[in-house]
Amino acid sequence: MSHLQVELIQKYGYRGRAYTVTTADGYELGVHRLQRKGGRDPNLLPVLIVHGLLGSSADWVLIGPDAAIGYLLADAGHDVWLGNTRGNRYSRRHFQMSPDDVAFWNFSWHEKGMYDVPAMIDFILNESKPRYSQLYYIGYSEGTTAYFVMTSSLPEYRAKIRLAHALAPAVLLDEMRSPILTTLANASPSLILVGERSNFVELFPWSEMQNGFLRSVCQPFVERNPCALVFENAFGPNQDSLDMKVVQAMMGHCPSGAALKEPKHYNQVIHTGIFQPYQEEGMENTVTAYNISASDVPIYIYYGVNDWIVHPKNVRRFANELPNVREIRPVGGKKFTHIDFFIGKHVKPAVYNRILRNLRNDARAQQAK
Fold it and tell me: CA separation (Å) from 31 to 2, 86, 102, 355?
């Protein structure tokens, strides 16, 4: 979140502040804090929200204070933290390496789950006053992938999450229907090889020139807008849900950058049908699948029936392995897609109001003890 975005949040009457969180392996992450003007309710736990692949913290404020989940949670009194994982426009620093170094980009979503999300959680809990031992977690797409890496592998962090919400959980992906993303994932091994040879291993980095061009392409009043066509083939068709003014605003922030190794890792999950760590090319397969059944944090899972990336079959299959599912629910009707979870016209009643209700009920239950 740039200073201009913080100013925008303040213009709407909210408090906004940027922090730097350093991971155990040296990446410096931009994390953004959002509170209502009168401050947070000290009786409520903080909330951490983590974006999807190529996304950023901006995703959770894009659709404005009347509908965006960042603002809605702040209105409810929560201390809201918007994460940015390594490699996006707000997290392009390392204490030793530069983004110009090939080694900087030698990570996938495994490292995000093992280092980024834990570092954010520790920072938030240490920064919160009064001091809390737990927080609420909301992950979208790759934000859920990283979450399940962490909770499958690091038991100490399971204890630090009171309740989780998984939106469009990207865990099992062998039923993916998106022709664009399937092509990208299939091409990623050769892209990695070419990238390493040419010192080009970053995927769709944010830049004023690139994102300004995308905004110009996504003109709201153009018939059969090319951005809408791309979205249909990437995330699933649901034209009625897209506000092209919001899409144009989104293109000012997304794509926000990632490592080429991330879709390559997803490609392995797509082809094996197994949620497991990254397997180096040409090496004997010695990796062990993530132990999803160890992820025992209470969780609500929401998915779209028309999501062309995360198929309902995959959601239900991996959810069967989880020991503490509070609810698993398709949301938004038969047309709800992957992208609708943060820019859809009906996402507030379909998803966000449910999250607010769940957190409110949990807070009441805790206070009643």
Answer: 11, 11, 24, 21
Q: Are 278 and 287 in contact (CB under 8 A)?
A: yes
Residue 287's pLDDT band (cuts 50, 70, 90): confident
Task: Give per-residue pLDDT as tens, 74-130.
Answer: 999 999 999 999 999 999 999 999 998 889 999 999 999 999 999 999 999 999 888
**Per-residue DSSP letter, 76:** T
Task: Pick 75 or 197 by higher pLDDT.
Answer: 75
Of residues 174 and 368, more confidently modeled = 174
Tell me what pLDDT residue 222 has. 63
Question: Peptide bond before 189: cis, by omega within 30 degrees of 0?
Answer: no
Q: Is the pTM of this model over 0.90?
A: yes
Q: Give yes or no: 78 in active site.
A: no
For residue 50, which of 38, 40, 59, 42 has the smallest C-alpha distance?
59
Distance CA 193, CA 260 (A): 10
The first and second tokens of residue 30, run together, are 């931009």
C-alpha count within 13 angstroms, C-beta hemisphere, residue 91 = 33
CB distance 234 to 308 below 8 Å: yes
Among residues 110, 265, 311, 338, the one annotated as catalytic is: 338
Query: Strands, DSSP E only, in the chain?
Result: 14-22, 27-36, 47-50, 80-82, 93-94, 135-140, 161-167, 202-203, 258-259, 299-303, 325-330
Tokens describing residue 47: 């909330």
DSSP string, 232-280: HHHH---GGG--HHHHHHHTTT-S--EETHHHHHHHHHHHH--------
**Among 306, 333, 309, 268, which Cα is nearest to 178's?**
309
Q: In this predicted structure, what is the pLDDT of residue 136?
A: 98
How does pLDDT run across 201-260, given as a tens digit for each residue?
787 777 666 666 666 677 777 666 777 778 888 888 888 887 877 776 766 676 788 998
Beta strands in 279-354 (DSSP E): 299-303, 325-330
Q: Is 271 a catalytic residue?
A: no
- The residue annotated as part of the active site, out of 141, 153, 188, 241, is 141
What is the token pair recorded at 33? 């804090």
**Cα-to-chain-centroid distance, residue 174:** 20
